[in-house]
Every structure is written in structure tokens, then in C-alpha cells.
Write a sequence for this structure.
């Protein structure tokens, strides 16, 4: 257990680990007390250098307001064991479910997901039934991409995708009845425009939809927000409003 200070409040970060098949998934619970129960689960993106550390600033902001959260590294990332070439979208969905079960997150207040994990968060709508979704530059994939291990075959599938309307992420999103916040950078060259538009238009049963366009940002939103405190604070306020 480690203790830090955020905005004048004591902040406690408690480490945890969860076995998943042959790997160990490592994560952190961030709150105001060591025995806090997290109600928010963070899911990081898919780049080789990404990990749960990218969202720490937001987890600290939530802890400062008394909202405990948990984040973990997918296998092959950060402190977790495993190799990226053994991972897949389907495996990552199962890893998130394993972590949620370990944390007893039967119905989280929110799933907060970035990039590739936006698709995964949507696939968790039915089993976890979150009250809110916060998606940073979320991606979407066709169903045949889900079981394919990351590598050349996976890249070939996603590069050849031209029609995203049938993505199972959007099928799940249509059944979501909670609050939705979607954040994109105006200069995002990774996520197709059709995907960006679908994340709002397909959420037909959401109780509320909030879309944020950051005019000077690209795809790596957490990196960008780290250097833009005003925009960072604005989005944190929006997230807190969804969780209040």
C-alpha cells in the first residue's frame, strides 16, 4: 500500500493482483482510505507503451471527491505479465471481467475506457451493467477481429475494415441506458470519422449523452490533457457530474 496526497486530501493507492490463466494482472485501487471499495473501473488503450498510469491524474481527481476507482494493466502491459502477441480483444474483455469479479464490481458506477478499450467497455455493458460510460477516443472493431491475436493478422483485419456499422460495440451501445460521455480530439488520425459519429448516434437509449471535442488534440488524449490543465479540469467536472 502506498499513500499520496491529492489536492490536500490523503489519497491511498492499494495494489492488487488477479490471476488470469497463465498470467497475473496487476492493478491499483485509488481512494481516500485503504479499505475503500472501488465503484469505477478504468481500462487503458492498446499501444505497446500504454498502461494504467496514463489515467492516474483522473483517478486522483475522483479520489479527491470521495470516489474510489480501480485500474489495472492488461496482460502484456505495465506491471502485468504476459505477451502482447497472446492478447486479443476477446481476451481483454475476459480479463476485465475477471478483475471486476475480483473487486466485486457487480454494477460499477462507471467504466472509463480509452481507445481500443472503448470497444471492450461496450462489450461489458451487458455483463456489468454500468451506470455510466466515459470513453476517451474510443475505437470500434468488427466481430471477426475479436478472437484474433494481436499481430499481423489483427492489423490486416482492422486495416481492411471499411464499414463499422455492424461492430458489436455499437450493438451493445444501443442497449445502454445510462449516462454517456465521449471525448475526441479534433485531430485524431487513428479513429475513423464514421466510428466517432456512431458513438453518439447509436446510443439511442442512453439517459444522457455528452460529447467533447478538444480542438487542438490528437488521439493520445491523456498525454495531451496532462499539458492542458484547464481542459483537464473541465472534463473532470463532467465526469464527476455523471457520477454524482
Amino acid at each position: 500500500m502506498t499513500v499520496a496526497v491529492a489536492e490536500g486530501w490523503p489519497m491511498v493507492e492499494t495494489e492488487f493482483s488477479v490471476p488470469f490463466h497463465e498470467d497475473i494482472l496487476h492493478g491499483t485501487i485509488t481512494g481516500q482510505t485503504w479499505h475503500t471499495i472501488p465503484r469505477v473501473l478504468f481500462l487503458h488503450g492498446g499501444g505497446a507503451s500504454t498502461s494504467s498510469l496514463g489515467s492516474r491524474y483522473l483517478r486522483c481527481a475522483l479520489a479527491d471527491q470521495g470516489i474510489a476507482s480501480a485500474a489495472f494493466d492488461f496482460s502484456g502491459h505495465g506491471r502485468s505479465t504476459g505477451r502482447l502477441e497472446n492478447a486479443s480483444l476477446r481476451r481483454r474483455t475476459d480479463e476485465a471481467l475477471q478483475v471486476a469479479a475480483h473487486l466485486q464490481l457487480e454494477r460499477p458506477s462507471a467504466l472509463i475506457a480509452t481507445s481500443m478499450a472503448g470497444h471492450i467497455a461496450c462489450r461489458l455493458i451487458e455483463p456489468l451493467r454500468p451506470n455510466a460510460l466515459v470513453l476517451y477516443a474510443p475505437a470500434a472493431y468488427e466481430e471477426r477481429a475479436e478472437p484474433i491475436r494481436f499481430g499481423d493478422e489483427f492489423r490486416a483485419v482492422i486495416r481492411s475494415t471499411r464499414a463499422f456499422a455492424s461492430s458489436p460495440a455499437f450493438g451493445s451501445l444501443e442497449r445502454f441506458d445510462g449516462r454517456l460521455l465521449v471525448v475526441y480530439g479534433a485531430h485524431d488520425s487513428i479513429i475513423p470519422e464514421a466510428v466517432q459519429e456512431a458513438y453518439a448516434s447509436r446510443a439511442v437509449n442512453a439517459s444522457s449523452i455528452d460529447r467533447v471535442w478538444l480542438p487542438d488534440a490528437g488521439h493520445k488524449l491523456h498525454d495531451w490533457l496532462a499539458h492542458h490543465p484547464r481542459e483537464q479540469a473541465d472534463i473532470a467536472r463532467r465526469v464527476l457530474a455523471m457520477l454524482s
